[in-house]
Amino acid sequence: MRKEKESNPQELSLESQRGPTHSVTIGPADISDGTYIAYLSDQVFNIYGSYSPIISQWFTSLRCRTLMAYTEKGPVGFVMTGPLLIDKGSLVASEVLAIAVDPEYQANGIGSMLLQAIEEQAQKMHVEQLVLHTASNNKAALRLFEAHGFRLKRSISRFYPKGQDALEMMKTLSRKKRPSTTG
Ligand SMILES: CC(C)(COP(=O)(O)OP(=O)(O)OC[C@H]1O[C@@H](n2cnc3c(N)ncnc32)[C@H](O)[C@@H]1OP(=O)(O)O)[C@@H](O)C(=O)NCCC(=O)NCCS
Questions:
Q1: pTM (2 decimals)?
Q2: pLDDT, tens digit, for every residue of 143-182?
Q3: Angle at CA of residue 135, ends 132 and 106, nearest 5°
Q4: Which residue lies with its CA nearest to atom 19 of ligand 1?
């Protein structure tokens, strides 16, 4: 059974190019989503290397957080983050380890919803920076990340196991006020 979704999940109605209107919601992943995450990772990340087992390991790690995009038919995408820098017990920077949308549902704004949701989650946790890597020729990903305010930090040649170069991108998040500790 899927865990109950967050009380106020984001919702989007989209006209799928190949089917009827679907409603998309974003919510925390359940352990049963692991099979779909491995399947989608195989589909979209194999051109870079054998990422499916690594992503499955991240998924079960308590240190990583995963949000899913669901339609009424089931999951259609996910985004995963992991800790990058912890200072004095506080998480300062997180890495967007992977983001993927089912090819049938791409270019409908779902990637954008997932990224927005993970940014909001990071802000609530007072994370100051998000970092990510993407292949330098991945046009769709670059458009998505640039539109969300990620900026190029450096390029890394032959970053991926299959030899592609990557771009490291970074976004500084606006600060959320920490709750006051005084009464
Ligand atoms: C990157 C990815 C997650 C984007 O998801 P998405 O749901 O298609 O994203 P959105 O619909 O929110 O669109 C984001 C931008 O990419 C553009 N885009 C989407 N698919 C595209 C394609 N095939 N070619 C060019 N641009 C594309 C959209 O037009 C949009 O740009 P715009 O706002 O300027 O129009 C998706 O393409 C994907 O899963 N790719 C495979 C996995 C991957 O490469 N992940 C990134 C590295 S971790």
A1: 0.88
A2: 999 999 999 999 999 999 999 999 999 999 987 666 665 5
A3: 85
A4: 107
Residue 3 lies in a domain: no
What is the Å distance from ligand 1's center to 99 Cα?
10
Would you say how long the chain is, in residues? 183
Q: Is 34 in the pocket of ligand 1 (CB under 6 A)?
A: no
Q: What is the pLDDT of residue 65?
A: 95
- The total number of structural domains in the chain stands at 1
Q: Residue 18 belongs to a domain with what CATH number?
A: 3.40.630.30
Q: Is the CB of 148 under 6 A from ligand 1?
A: no
Q: Is residue 115 part of a domain?
A: yes
100 pocket-lining for ligand 1 (C-beta < 6 Å): yes
Give the C-alpha distances (Å, rounded to integers) separating 12 from 20, 21, 172: 14, 10, 26
